[in-house]
Amino acid sequence: AKSLKERLTEIIPEKQEEVKAFKKDYGNTVLGEVTINQAYGGMRGVKGLIWEGSVLDAEEGIRFRGKTIPECQKELPSAVPGGEPLPEALFWLLVTGEVPTPEQTKSVSQEWAARAAIPEFVEDLLDRCPKTLHPMAQFSLAINALQHDSHFAKAYSNGINKADYWGPTYEDAMDLIAKLPNVAARIYRNVYKDGKVADIQLDKDYSYNFSNLLGFADNKEFVELMRLYLVLHSDHEGGNASAHTTHLIGSTLADPYLSFAGGLNSLAGPLHGLANQEVLRWTMKMQETIGKDASDEQITKYLWDTLNGGKVVPGFGHAVLRKTDPRYMAQREFALQHLPEDPLFALVSKLYHIIPGVLTEHGKTANPYPNVDAHSGVLLQYYGMKEQDYYTVLFGVSRAIGVMSQLIWDRSLGLPLERPKSYSTAHLKKMYAKN
Ligand code: NMX
Ligand code: MLT
C-alpha cells in the first residue's frame, strides 16, 4: 500500500493541472462585491480565499472534503468498532480528498508516533515557564522553538526550487502534528500535575498517546472523546482567524512552525478558541452567583446582566453559521450517550434552551445559537480534566490537522504572498462621498 506522501506525489500534479485549467476558463469570473460596511466589518462574507479541506455552509455547518460530521463518523476508520473516527484518518481525507483504509490510517498513526519526540531544549524551555504563564502562550512559545528543526527553512536557505516546496512543507507538517502531544501534555503536566510525561507508545494511535501523556488513557471513554474532539475542531474552512493567520504567515514562506504559532496566537483570543475556557468560567460564575438550582428566570436575569454589562455570552453566536453548530450537536450526542445524568450537562442543555431566546430578544446577534465551544468543557469536566485554562490547547492540537493540510496545498499550488488592498477613511471619503 502507498504511504500518504506517495499518494500525494501522484495527486499533486493532477490537481495542479486542474487548477490551471479552471483558472484559464474562469479566472476573470467575479466572485463577489465588497461594501464599505464589509471593509469596516471584519470582511464578513467577503469571498477571497482558497481552502481545499473544508467548506462551511451557514445553515448546515462544516463539510470536510464534502462530507458532513455524521458522514465522517460513519465512513472514517475508528479504533473501536463503531466508535469515533480517528483524526489520522481525517488528516488523510483533508490532504488527499480520499477516505483512507484502516491500513493507511494505521500508517499515519505509526508515522506520527515515530516522529513525536521533541528536542531537549524545547522541554527545558517549557519546564522553565512559570505555572502562571497561560498555557496558550507556552504552546505558541514551544511551537516557535520547534522551528529550529524545520525542513522547509533549511531547504529554502539551501536554495530549493519553488516547484519542490511542498516536500519539506509536508515533512514539517507531519513532524509538527506528531510533536504536539509531547508539547501540549508537557504543558498540562507541568502546570497542573507532577511534571512527569509518559512515553509515546509506537503501536498506539495519536489520541490514545495524547490521552496517555496527559494522564487520562485509563479511561477508554476519554480516549474516544479525544478522538472525536480532535476530529471536530480540526478545520472550519479558511476564513476563521487561526486558519487565516496560519495561511497568511505561510504565504510569506515562513515555515510551517512559525505559521502555526501565529495561528495559535489567534486561537488564544476570547472571541475565537479561548471561548471554550470562557464558557466554563461564565457557567461556573453563574452557578456561584445564583446557585446550582437556579430557576429559568434567574438564569435569564443573569444573561441580561452579562449583556447589559457590555459582555458577550461565550459559546454562542458565529461569524458564518446561522444555525446550531453541528460540532455542538456531535458533542451533545456524545454526552447523551455517555453522561446523560451529569448535572453540568443538564445545565448546558438548559442553557441551550434559554440563551437563543434571550439573544434574539437582545436583537444584536446575527446567530443566537451555540457554537462548538459551548459544549466541549462539560465533557472534559466530566472526565476529570477540570482546568479550563487548558482547554484551548486541545483546540489548538486539533486545529493543526486542518491548517497543516492546507499549508501543504498552499505550497503545492504555488499560492503567492497574501496582500489585500486597504484604504484610509479619508481616502474612501474622497473616492465615494457625495458633496
Ligand atoms: N453575546 C453577546 N453579544 C453577541 C454575541 C454573544 N454571544 N454574539 C454576537 N454578539 C454581538 C456582537 O458583539 C455584535 O455587537 P456590536 O454590534 O455591539 O459590535 C453584534 O452582536 C453583531 O455580531 P454578529 O454579527 O452576530 O457576530 P460577529 O460575526 O461579529 O462575531 C462571534 C462572531 C463568534 C465573535 C460572536 O458571536 C461572539 O462574540 N460570540 C461569543 C464568543 C464565542 O463564542 N466565540 C467562539 C466562536 C467559535 N470559535 O471557536 O471560534
Ligand atoms: C472555528 O472553528 O474556527 C470557529 O468556529 C470560528 C470560525 O469558523 O469563524
Task: Describe this protein's structure.
The structure is a single chain. This protein is an all-alpha fold and 435 residues long. It contains 20 helices and 2 strands. The protein has a two-stranded antiparallel sheet with strand order 1-2. Bound molecules: nitromethyldethia coenzyme A (NMX) and D-malate. The site of nitromethyldethia coenzyme A has 21 residues, from loops.
Highlighted features:
single chain, 435 residues, mainly alpha, two-stranded antiparallel sheet, 2 strands
Strand content: under 5%
Task: List the strand order in the largest sheet.
Answer: 1-2
The low-confidence parts are none
Number of helices: 20
Q: Please state the structural category.
A: mainly alpha
The succession of helices and strands, N to C, reads HHEEHHHHHHHHHHHHHHHHHH
Task: Tell me the Rg in angstroms.
Answer: 22 Å
Which term fits the overall shape? globular
What hetero molecules are in the model? nitromethyldethia coenzyme A, D-malate
Q: Give the helix level as a range of percent.
A: 55-70%
Counted beta strands = 2
The span between the termini is 70 Å
Would you tell me the overall average pLDDT? Answer: 98
State the major sheet. Answer: 2 strands, antiparallel
Protein name: Citrate synthase
InterPro entries: Citrate_synth-like_lrg_a-sub, Citrate_synth-like_sm_a-sub, Citrate_synthase, Citrate_synthase_AS, Citrate_synthase_euk, Citrate_synthase_sf
Keywords: Transferase
GO molecular function: acyltransferase activity, acyl groups converted into alkyl on transfer
